[in-house]
Write a sequence for this structure.
C-alpha cells in the first residue's frame, strides 16, 4: 500500500512525467523479459572478491568478504574455533527440468586457500549445491563442515550435495586428513580420494585450484584438484570421476556456494577466485509465457497509474479549497513536506482509536507508520475555531527551527478540511506521564520514577531550547504554552519541546508577524501579569519555565500558583529541599537540587522584570553562575510592575540587561 503511494508520489507534478514513467516501465518490462532469458543459464567469474561484490552473495554468520577473498569461517585473529559458515551466489541456477527431462552441465572452478591455525589442522571446506539459501544447520561446526549436523545427517530433506575438501580425519570412514569427497545429504562420502598421492596438500596455505565438472547429458561428475602454481599437465586427469544423477537429490533450481567449518582445530578457509559456466536448458515456448506473465501485469500497472493520476488531479482541486492556508505555509522558507491524506490514513489505520497517543487542546495525536518509520500524527479537531491559525503557526514556526531539544516536524497535510501534522515519534511519551503518575511503567516493565539525574538533564534540555527560541534564532519565538505535557521524551529521555500550536514569531526588535491579542496558555503556568498585558512576552515564557522546574523537582502539579507559594514558604524556613519529590527517596545531589528550586522561584517572581532571562537560567543550570538572589518572602504582585532601574542589583549584575522591556515587543 505504502509502496504504491510512494511511486505515484513521484508522478504528479507534470503531465509529461506520466509519459516518461510509461516509457520507463516499458523499458523495464523489456529488460525483465530479457533477463529471464539470461537467468536460466548462469555464468559468472570473480578473479578475486572485493567489498563491492558483497551484493552478489548471501552469507550466513561468520562468512564474509575480506582481503580480496571469501572468508567462509572468519579470519585468523577472530575467535575462529567451533565455527561453521556458508556463502552463496545470490541468483539460482536451473540445474534440471522435470518437464523436459534434461539436466544442465556446468563447470565450477575455484581457487581455495586453507591456512592452518592449529596443529593438527581442521576441519575443511566444501563446494555446495543447495535448495535453500541463507540457511545453515545449527551445530554444523567441527566434523560437519557446515554441510549437515548430527540430526540432519543422512536425511533426504537436507537437499544438499557437497564436494568436500576435508582436512581432518574426523570419522572412521574418512581416509585421511587431506582428501576430497562427494557427499549427498550426509557427511558420509559416497566417493573419496586422498590428495597425498597427487602432490596436493590442502592446508598448505598455498593456492589450490579445484574444478567440479558436471556433465548433464552423461550424468557424470569429475573433480580436478591441483596446486595453482604447479606446472605440467597434472591437472589433466580427474581425482574423482563417477556417475551421479544430481536431479535425483536436488530441486530444479539450486543455489551454488561454499560451506566450511572449524572445530577445536582450526584453519582459515578462504576462496580467492571463482568461475562458473553452465549450459542453457531453456524452453523458448516456456519463456514466451514467462515474458507475457511479466508484460501483462505491467500493462495493468500502467493502467492503474493512469487511474491514480487521474484521481489525484481530481483530489488536487479539493486540496486547494483554502489557498490561503497553502500559501501561508509555502511562504515560510523551509516548509516541511506535504503529505497526502490517504497516506496518513493508511499510516494510522484510518485514525484507529487503538493508535491514539494522546489528546490535546486542539486535536488528537495518533501513532503511525510511514515507510516503516514510526511517526506521530496530530489531527486537528474540525470544529475548533483555533484549528487553522494554530496549524499554520505550528508549521511555520517549528518547521523552520532546528534544535536537538525540539520535536521534529516531518510534514503536514491539509485536505478535505482535515488539518494534520506529522512529527517524529517520541517513544517515551510526554513528561507529565512520568512525573505525575506514581506507578508509571518503565520500558523494562518495572515501576519506576524518573531519576533526579534524568530530570536534571530534561530541565537543562528545556532551558537550552528555550534560550534558542528566545535568543538563538533569527526570529524570536515565544512558545506560550510551556508545560509538562508539551515536553516529550525521546528514546534516551532527552527533553523535546513540542506543541507549537500557540507559538508566535517575533522579529527581534521589529514588528510582529501575528497580532492576535487573545490571552492563551494553560492556567497554573500563566504569569500573573498576562491578564494585565493581554499578551505573551519573553518573561511569561520564563514564568512557565519556572513553574515547570518546580513541578519536575517536586513531582506535583502546579495548581493555581500553589506550588510556588508552597516552595517559597519552605525556602523562607530554609527547608527548601523538603520540596523535592518524595519518590526520589532523597536520591539527588543536594546542591544541584537547591539551585534548580531557587531558579524555579526566581523565574516565578511576580515582577516580570525580576525574572532571569533564559540565557541566565541556562547558565545557572550549567553551574556557570549562581542562582539569582530571591527575597525570603514572596513579593506581592503589583501592576504596573517596578521597572528594572528601580532595582539596581538585579538589573545590573544578574540579567546583564537581557530582560526584554515589554515595549520592544509590540503585541503578538
Ligand atoms: C551420516 O549418515 C550416513 C548415511 O547417509 C551414515 O552412513 C553415517 O554413519 C552418518 N554419520 C554420522 C557421524 O552419523
Ligand atoms: C569446541 O568444541 C569442543 C567440542 O564440543 C570443545 O571441547 C572445545 O572446548 C570447544 N572449543 C572452544 C574454543 O570453544
Ligand atoms: C567444462 O569444461 C570442459 C573442459 O574444459 C569443457 O569441455 C566443457 O564444455 C565445459 N562445460 C561447460 C558447461 O562450460
Amino acid at each position: 500500500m505504502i509502496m504504491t503511494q510512494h511511486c505515484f508520489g513521484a508522478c504528479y507534478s507534470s503531465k509529461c512525467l506520466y509519459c516518461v514513467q510509461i516509457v520507463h516501465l516499458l523499458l523495464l518490462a523489456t529488460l525483465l523479459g530479457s533477463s529471464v532469458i539470461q537467468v536460466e543459464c548462469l555464468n559468472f567469474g570473480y578473479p578475486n572478491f572485493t567489498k563491492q561484490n558483497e551484493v552478489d552473495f548471501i552469507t550466513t554468520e561468520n562468512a564474509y568478504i575480506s582481503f580480496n577473498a571469501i572468508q567462509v569461517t572468519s579470519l585468523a585473529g577472530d575467535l575462529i574455533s567451533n565455527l561453521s559458515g556458508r556463502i552463496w551466489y545470490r541468483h539460482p541456477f536451473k540445474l534440471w527440468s522435470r518437464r523436459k527431462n534434461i539436466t544442465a552441465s556446468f563447470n565450477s572452478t575455484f581457487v581455495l586457500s586453507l591456512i592452518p591455525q592449529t596443529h593438527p589442522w581442521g576441519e575443511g571446506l566444501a563446494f555446495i549445491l543447495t535448495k535453500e539459501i541463507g540457511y545453515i544447520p545449527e551445530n554444523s561446526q567441527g566434523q560437519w563442515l557446515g554441510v549437515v549436523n548430527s540430526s540432519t545427517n543422512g536425511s533426504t530433506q537436507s537437499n544438499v550435495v557437497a564436494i568436500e575438501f576435508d582436512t581432518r580425519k574426523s570419522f572412521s570412514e574418512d581416509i585421511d586428513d587431506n582428501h576430497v569427497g562427494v557427499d549427498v545429504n550426509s557427511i558420509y562420502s559416497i566417493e573419496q580420494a586422498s590428495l597425498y598421492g597427487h602432490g596436493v596438500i590442502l592446508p598448505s596455505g598455498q593456492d589450490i585450484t579445484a574444478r567440479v565438472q558436471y556433465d548433464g547429458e552423461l550424468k557424470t561428475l569429475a573433480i580436478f584438484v591441483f596446486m595453482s602454481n604447479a606446472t605440467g599437465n597434472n591437472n589433466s586427469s580427474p581425482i574423482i570421476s563417477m556417475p551421479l544423477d544430481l536431479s535425483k537429490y536436488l530441486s530444479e533450481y539450486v543455489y551454488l556456494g561454499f560451506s566450511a567449518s572449524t572445530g577445536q582445530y582450526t584453519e582459515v578457509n578462504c576462496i580467492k577466485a571463482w568461475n562458473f559456466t553452465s549450459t542453457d536448458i531453456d524452453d523458448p515456448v516456456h519463456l514466451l509465457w514467462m515474458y507475457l506473465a511479466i508484460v501483462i501485469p505491467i500493462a495493468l500497472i500502467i493502467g492503474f497509474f493512469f487511474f491514480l493520476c487521474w484521481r489525484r488531479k481530481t483530489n488536487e482541486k479539493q486540496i486547494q479549497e483554502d489557498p490561503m492556508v497553502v500559501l501561508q505555509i509555502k511562504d515560510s522558507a523551509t516548509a516541511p513536506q506535504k503529505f497526502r491524506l490517504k497516506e496518513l490514513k493508511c499510516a494510522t489505520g484510518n485514525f484507529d482509536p487503538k493508535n491514539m497517543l494522546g489528546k490535546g487542546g486542539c486535536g488528537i495525536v495518533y501513532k503511525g507508520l510511514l515507510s516503516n518509520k514510526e511517526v506521530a500524527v496530530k489531527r486537528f479537531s474540525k470544529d475548533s475555531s483555533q484549528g487553522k491559525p494554530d496549524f499554520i503557526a505550528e508549521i511555520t514556526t517549528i518547521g523552520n527551527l532546528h534544535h536537538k531539544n525540539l520535536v521534529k516536524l516531518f510534514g503536514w497535510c491539509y485536505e478535505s478540511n482535515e488539518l494534520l501534522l506529522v512529527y517524529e515519534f517520541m517513544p517515551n511519551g510526554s513528561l507529565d506521564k512520568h512525573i505525575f503518575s506514581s506507578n508509571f511503567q518503565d520500558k523494562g516493565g518495572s515501576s519506576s520514577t524518573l531519576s533526579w539525574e534524568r530530570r536534571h538533564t530534561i530541565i537543562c534540555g528545556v532551558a537550552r531550547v528555550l534560550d534558542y527560541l528566545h535568543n538563538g534564532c533569527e526570529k524570536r519565538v515565544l512558545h506560550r504554552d510551556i508545560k509538562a505535557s508539551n515536553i516529550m521524551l525521546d528514546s534516551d529521555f532527552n527533553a523535546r519541546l513540542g506543541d507549537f500550536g500557540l507559538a508566535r514569531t517575533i522579529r527581534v526588535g521589529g514588528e510582529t508577524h501575528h497580532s492576535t491579542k487573545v490571552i492563551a496558555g494553560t492556567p497554573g503556568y500563566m504569569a500573573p501579569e498576562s491578564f494585565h498585558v493581554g499578551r505573551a512576552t519573553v518573561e511569561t515564557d520564563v514564568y512557565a519555565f519556572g513553574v515547570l522546574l518546580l513541578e519536575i523537582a517536586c513531582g506535583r502539579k502546579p495548581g493555581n500558583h500553589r506550588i510556588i507559594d508552597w516552595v517559597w514558604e519552605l525556602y523562607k524556613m530554609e527547608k527548601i529541599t523538603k520540596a523535592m519529590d518524595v519518590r526520589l527517596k532523597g536520591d539527588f545531589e543536594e546542591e544541584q537540587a537547591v539551585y534548580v528550586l531557587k531558579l524555579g522561584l526566581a523565574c516565578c517572581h511576580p515582577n516580570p522584570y525580576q525574572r532571569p532571562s533564559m540565557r541566565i537560567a541556562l547558565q545557572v543550570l550549567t553551574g556557570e553562575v549562581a542562582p539569582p538572589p530571591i527575597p525570603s518572602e514572596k513579593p506581592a504582585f503589583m501592576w504596573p510592575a517596578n521597572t528594572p532601574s528601580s532595582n539596581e542589583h538585579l538589573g545590573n549584575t544578574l540579567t546583564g540587561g537581557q530582560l526584554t522591556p515589554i515595549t520592544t515587543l509590540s503585541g503578538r
